[in-house]
Each structure stands twice: as structure tokens, then as C-alpha cells.
Amino acid sequence: MAIGKNKKGRKGGRKKIIEPMTRKDWYDVQVPSIFNVRNIGKTLVNRTAGLKTSTDALVGRVFEANLADLNKDESLSFRKIKFICEEVQGFNLLTNFHGMDLTRDKLCSLVKKWHTLVEAWCDVKTTDGYVLRLFCIGFTKRRHKQVSKTSYAQGGHVRAIRKKMIEIMTKKASESDLSKLVSEFIPESIGNDIMRACNSIYPLNNVYIRKCKVLRKPKFDLQKLLEAHQGGAAAPAVDEEGLVEELEGTGGRL
């Protein structure tokens, strides 16, 4: 048999290697106007190709930011806020509130010996139709001129405090819309109300809304989202003619 007689040639050449970053675009992430800093960063997405549009890849994307960066106040660095992208306008992503949490180091610094930790959670509904799950945490406090080493609350006290926490959280949420409720998380007004209400049961301190989760949302309303983003620092001006050309290539929405 002759050497190399049955050798089959390869079909096509080597696959062309394309740099992945050449087919991606950068988008600015904007948060609602209740925060001082509106632009919290950028995100990357593949350009529209065929049936896969960049808008579909961006809507529903979740971003997390520290409240100290959002409000330029280092004393609020223990809170983390989550935002979800709901609309794409040009190269700007309009986000809405999606959740809130405390940092782990803050939670660990609150827990102490010789005190009782009281936690409560409840599902609440705002006036604009959002269903949220709020988690509250609080700790017993030493009384004035207390001699005893420990500050433990009895089981009846704990149940009464937990009932009061749920009552105040439900009342606050049912009287306000989402943006107003989020703005009340920042100065800890709900925690202060709980402390005052529970003072007759057992003195408390370090009462915080530990966590907030969005369980259900009303039907998407673009007008309400635009109202939440009105005011505050305006986005940089973009040439309209250039914007239309960019949108045609990126699958964004006006």
C-alpha cells in the first residue's frame, strides 16, 4: 500500500478566533432619585445578534451597592442595597429597588453575651402593590443603675416584643409606597419607633430592619419608573441622532 494514498484532506481551515470584548457594549447603571449618587457603575453585555437582543439580557439583571457610596455617608456603610434593571433607555439602565441587607460584620458586632436577641419577620404590602418581607432584629438593654450582670427577657416579654415589631412594620408599610418605605430604612425611623413602643415591655437597643426582600411586584409601569428616576443628578446628554444609530445596532429601547 502506498504511503499517504488514502489521506483525507481537512475541510476548511482553522476556526477564526474573535476577541470576545469586540462584540460587547458598556451600559451605565442608574438608581432611583431618592439616593444622592445616581450612577453606580457600568455593566457589560453582548450586542444584539439574531434573535438574542441585548435588552433581554439586561432586563432582570441585579446590582448591589453600598449605602455609604449611594449617599456619600460613611456611617451608613453597614447597609447593602440591591437594584434590579427594569428598563433600558439608550445606554442607560433604569433600575428599581430589589432588596436590602446588613453586612455580616455589622450583625456580628451587635451580638453580645448576657443579652437577649429578639427577631421578627412579616410580609407587608405597600400602597403601590409591592409585597415585601421585612426582617427586624433587636437586643435587650441594661436598665439604669442595674445591678444584675445579665439582661435576659422572659419568654412572655419576647413574644410581646415580637408582636409589637410585626405590628409597627405592617402599619408603616401599609401607609407608604415603595420609595417612601425605602427612604425610611436610611434614618432607622422604623427601628426607633419599635424601641419607643417596646420600652414599656423591656428596654431595647440596636433595633434595625435587618433585611428586606421583594416577593411580588405589580404589573410593570414605565411611567412610575420614570417618575422614580426624575430629579437628582441628570444623566449626561446624548446626541439624539447618534442615539438612534446606536440603538439600531444594540437592540436597546428608546
Layout: helices, strands, pairs:
Layout: E1 24-30, E2 39-46, H1 54-58, E3 62-66, H2 67-71, E4 79-89, E5 92-102, H3 104-110, E6 117-125, E7 131-140, H4 155-174, H5 178-185, H6 189-198, E8 204-216, H7 222-229, H8 240-250
Parallel strand pairs: 1-5
Antiparallel strand pairs: 1-2, 3-4, 4-5, 5-8, 6-7, 7-8
Helix pairs in contact: 4-6
Structural write-up:
With about 250 residues, the protein is of the alpha+beta class. Helix content is about 30%, strand content about 30%. The protein has helices spanning about 55-60, 65-70, 105-110, 155-175, 180-185, 190-200, 220-230, 240-250, and strands spanning about 25-30, 40-45, 60-65, 80-90, 90-100, 115-125, 130-140, 205-215. Strands 1, 2, 3, 4, 5, 6, 7 and 8 form an eight-stranded mixed sheet that branches. The chain is elongated. The termini are far apart. Mean pLDDT is about 85; it is low at about 230-254.
Structure described in brief:
The protein has about 250 residues and is of the alpha+beta class. About 30% of the residues lie in helices and about 30% in strands.
Pairing-aware structural class of the strands and helices? alpha+beta
What is the N-to-C succession of helices and strands? EEHEHEEHEEHHHEHH
The largest sheet is: 8 strands, mixed
Strand tally: 8
Supply Rg: 26 Å
Instruction: Please report which band the strand proportion falls in: under 5%, 5-15%, 15-25%, 25-35%, 35-45% or over 45%.
Output: 25-35%
Kindly report the average pLDDT value. Answer: 86
Helical fraction equals: 25-40%
Low-confidence parts, pLDDT < 50 over ≥5 residues? 232-254
The number of distinct helices, counting runs of at least 4 residues, comes to: 8
- Overall 3D form: elongated
